[in-house]
Known about the structure:
42% of the residues lie in helices and 17% in strands. With 619 residues, it is of the alpha/beta class. It folds into 3 domains: 2-221, Aminohydrolase, N-terminal nucleophile (Ntn) domain (Glutamine Phosphoribosylpyrophosphate, subunit 1, domain 1, 4-Layer Sandwich); 234-387 and 418-426 and 472-538, HUPs (Rossmann fold); 550-617, no CATH class. It starts with a strand and ends with a strand.
Amino acid sequence: MCGIAGWVDFGRDLTRERPTLQAMTNTLANRGVDDQGLWVRGDVALGHTRTAVIDLAGGAQPLTVEEDGRPVAVIVYNGEVYNFKQLRTELQARGQRFRTRSDTEVVLRSYLEWGPDCAKRLEGIFAFAVWDLRREELVLVRDRLGVKPLFYTRLPEGILFGSEPKALLANPLVRPVVAVEGLQELFATAKKPGQSVFRDMRALLPGHTLTVGRGGVVDRTYWALEARPHTDDLDGTITKVRSLLEDIVLRELEADVPLCTALSGGVDSSAITAIAAKWRRQLHGERVRTFVTTFDDYARNFQPDDVRFSPDEPYAAEVARHLGSDHVKIMLNTQDLMDPETRLAVLLAQDMPTTLGDMDTSNYLTSREIKTHSTVALAGEVADEIFGGYNWMYNPDLLNADVFPWVANETRQQGSPTGQGRRLFDQGLMRKLDMNHYYADHYRQALAEAPHQDGEDAKERRMRSVGYVTLTRWLPMLLDRDDRLSMAHGLELRVPYADHRLVEYMYNTPWSFKTFDGREKSILRAAVRDLVPPSVLERTKSPWPVTQDPAYTKMLHDELSALVADASSPALPFLDTDAVRHTLEHPSSIAHEWVSRMHIEMALQFNTWLRHYNVELAI
C-alpha cells in the first residue's frame, strides 16, 4: 500500500514547486514506509510513498512508460489489483511489453490499452492517478467500494489531489476552512458521498474516474450497484457464496511479504481465516498467522452492553486452535489507550475527530503491533453490510423511522438521546447544524438513488433500500477509519467481503434468503458451516471491543476538566458549559457505558483538532 499526491496547474511552471510537492508527499510517509519518489515536469507534479507488497525490487514509483525512448504516461498508484496476472497475460497478447512484475505497471499499461475505461477491468482496491503526456490529461480513478481514499481540490487551471486531506493541506493553496456542511459531516454517522470535512476538498466518488485537461474536468461513473434478478435457489445461493469466497481469498493471499488475518472470533473474520488457512496449507504447507486484540482482564471481567454480548478473545483462541494457526494475542491496557502521543497520532491519522475514542485507539495500536510481524492483513469488514448483520436491520421501529436506521438507533440509546457525540456542544451551534434536517434530507436522497427490481413486495423493497444506504452511507465511515488507522503504520488491510462480485451478488439476493433460518447472516453461516467451530457459528455479533476499565472513564473526565479550566482551549466557545459541568459533577456509575463516553471523546478530540490543524470555522 502507498500514498499518492499530485498537482496539475496549466497556468504555472511546477518545476519551481518541488519543495511544496515534497511537503505534500512527506505527509503520507507512514502510508509508504519503504520508499519515496517525485516526478515533476512543466505543469505536472506527482509524489508517491511506497510500502512494497508486490515486486519489491521493481515496483518503485512514480512509474513511467516510454515509447520510442520518450515517456508517454506516468502513474502514482495506491492499492492492489488482484487480477493483475490475468490482465498482464491479456495485455502481452495485445502487444504490451513489461519491464517489472508489479501490478502498478499492469494498471498503467491497462490505461494505455483501454484509457479510463480500464477501471472496469481492474478487480481490487485502488486509487491512482495517470498523467497522459500524449493528451496532456490527468486521470484519477477510485475503486468500486471506495476502500482506498482519494481527495482533491479544484484549482482555477488544474487540480490538487492526495490520499489523505493532510497532503492537500500541506499546499499553501489549501486552507483548513470548515463550513457548516463540513461540521455536519463531522458529526454525522451517515456520510454524504464525496463530501469532505474541509470546505474546499472533495473525495472522488467510489466507482468514478475524474479526467482533468485544459478544457476542464469530466467526472464519469464506471461502476454502480444495479438491481438484477436473482436466479439461484437458496441452496444454489449458499454454494455460490462459498465459491466466491474461496476464489476471493485465494486471490487476496497474493503478496511478496508476510501476511496474516485479523481474527475477532466472529463468523466474518473466522470464515476468512479458515479459507486462508486452507489455501496456505494446500499451496505452501504453511500455517496462517492470526491476531486478536483484547484488554487486561477483559475476558474474565466482561460485562455485556447493548451491542456486545461476549468477549472476542476466547472465541478467537478457539478458532486458532481449530485451524492450527500461528496465533498472537495483542493485550492492551488503559495506559496504552490514554497515552497522549498515541491519542494525538490517532487524530492525525484521520485528519478529523471522531466519537469512537478507545475503539479507534485500540485499532491503531493493533495495526502497529501487526505491522511488526506482517505487512498485509485480511479482515472481516463489510460482511455485516452485505449479509445483514446489524441489529437495527431487524427492528421494525428503526426500519420505519424515516431516517437512517442506525441514526434512529443512536437516539434511542440512553447515553445519546441527542445523537452520538453531540451532548456537550453548544445548543446554538447544534441548531445551526440542524442535524435532524440534515439526516432527513440526506435519507430521502439516498432512498431515491437505490436501484430496485420490478415486482418487489414491500418487505423486499424496504430491505433492499436499507442495504443500499448501508453500503453507501454507513460503510464509507468504516472503510475510511480502517484505511487510515492501518496505513498510519504502512499496514495493508485487505477486505475480501468488499469484492464487487460478492457485493453485487448479495445486493440482489432476497432478504428472505439472507434470514432463511430466522437469524442474521444466515447465508454466510451456512456457507462456512464446515470450516469454523459451532460456537462461532452460533455467536451473536459483537462489534470491536471497548475497554470496561473504570480508570479509563476517570481519565477522560480529568482531561475534560483540564480542558474547561484552560481559557486558551480552542473548543471552549463551542461547548455547552452547563452540560460539561453536569457531566463532571455526575460521572457515569457504569464504567462500560461507552455510548455516554463518546460525548467526552468528541469534545476532547474537537479541541485537539482545532489546535493542531489551525482550523478556520466559517459558520
